Automatic annotation (TrEMBL):
Transmembrane segments: none annotated. The keyword Oxidoreductase does not apply. The keyword Flavoprotein applies. This is Flavodoxin family protein. Keywords: Flavoprotein, FMN. The lineage of its organism: Bacteria, Bacillati, Bacillota, Clostridia, Candidatus Paraimprobicoccus. Pfam families: FMN_red. GO terms for molecular function: oxidoreductase activity. Gene3D superfamilies: 3.40.50.360. It comes from the Bacteria. Residues 2-138 form the NADPH-dependent FMN reductase-like domain.
């Protein structure tokens, strides 16, 4: 199964179009698309609960993590917002702290990160790549990066 974490509030913009191009390569696979906006994940509050129990005190992402760990491939599709990622995706990523705290033993998984940007700004792309690299490193997820820049000029 291919799990897509879609992180744009728009269902018809450049992020959606770029995602659909990539998904054509997986048209014979089961594809599950989850919107980070629909998940409405609570942000990590660094309460320490996961340090003691290995689980998060919030249960809003349990179904997402079940899908993540049962999937064969993760695809994250996101636009650039203020040199970073949209806040709903940031909330999900910050919740990966529990995996860092307990050093789980995960099977390696590949992922594709699709980033769209209105400008051709390499700094924001570098920031996003580093955020995701370190946030998912402890789950043993390795990313291939696909970027679509200068979308402001394509309108």
């Amino acid at each position: 199964m291919v799990l897509v974490l879609y992180s744009s509030p728009h269902s018809d913009g450049f992020t959606f179009k770029a995602l659909n191009i990539v998904l054509k390569f997986f048209e014979n696979s089961e594809i599950k698309i989850i919107s980070s906006y629909d998940l409405n994940a609570k942000p990590c509050v660094d309460c320490g609960y996961c340090k003691d129990t290995s689980i998060c005190k919030f249960y809003d992402l349990d179904e997402f993590y079940d899908l993540l760990f049962s999937s064969n491939l993760l695809i994250i599709a996101t636009p650039v917002y203020n040199f970073s990622i949209p806040s709903p995706l940031k909330s999900i990523i910050d919740r990966n702290q529990r995996f860092y705290n307990k050093k789980f033993n995960f099977k390696e998984k590949n992922a594709i990160l699709i980033v769209t940007s209105g400008k051709s700004d390499q700094l924001s792309l570098k920031i996003i790549k580093k955020q995701l690299f370190y946030s998912f490193k402890f789950i043993k997820i390795k990313f291939v990066f696909v970027t679509l820049t200068n979308t402001d000029k394509m309108v």
